[in-house]
Description:
Layout: E1 2-7, E2 12-19, E3 22-30, H1 35-50, E4 59-63, H2 69-86, E5 90-93, H3 95-101, E6 109-117, E7 120-127, E8 133-142, H4 143-153, E9 157-160, H5 164-174, E10 179-181, H6 191-203, H7 222-233, H8 236-240, H9 247-264
Parallel strand pairs: 1-4, 4-5, 6-9, 9-10
Antiparallel strand pairs: 1-2, 2-3, 6-7, 7-8
Helix pairs in contact: 1-2, 2-9, 3-6, 4-5
Amino acid sequence: xxxxxxxxxxxxxxxxxxxxxxxxxxxxxxxxxxxxxxxxxxxxxxxxxxxxxxxxxxxxxxxxxxxxxxxxxxxxxxxxxxxxxxxxxxxxxxxxxxxxxxxxxxxxxxxxxxxxxxxxxxxxxxxxxxxxxxxxxxxxxxxxxxxxxxxxxxxxxxxxxxxxxxxxxxxxxxxxxxxxxxxxxxxxxxxxxxxxxxxxxxxxxxxxxxxxxxxxxxxxxxxxxxxxxxxxxxxxxxxxxxxxxxxxxxxxxxxxxxxxxxxxxxxx
Length: 268
């Protein structure tokens, strides 16, 4: 089984190919470049280095959220384009589940945190000592409420994610339980974890078609919140005047790029 993993839920852009219990390749970039510039070239490079055709992939595992609205849309549209062109199933892998799975084997509670701004984080609670056990599914939470919950549980916990540097000082001050922070090579999203967890979900039959796939944003996008507020204040025309290319048009462009890549092939 060859599983292509795609991760674009945050600033991290990552792709990987996992097959028969081995990470054949992983390409990860955590830099200020948009995923629309990086994902398809990264997939191209991975497949060329391995001398594989995209048609050999059995399924596409994509980080399905929560996370950055733009990042998730780009990753989703790319996976959908590849899935449609190759007629391959997609595997929706919850972003926080994959992050926790990357710390497989630890005995502490695992708490991934993605910064959602305004003292909010996307988070969840997991055990990963023997298998991935979801104790608290993905949610949006106030950092203070999360600290109170962890204190109530009274168990050691390890944190990871881009929410750590934002809230580490607060957690160290307010937590009454023992806490650790994942080391640099394990503290961000990785496509290999998405593909590895996707392999398990594939064996359980948890797949979807490219047309069925939808990211899980958890919260409404800022543009949607602004539109709702504008409607309440009667300023819809004023807000619309500042908009350019719509989200739907951008998603279609990313999806079309994935389809073209799959149809043309990546081996030269």
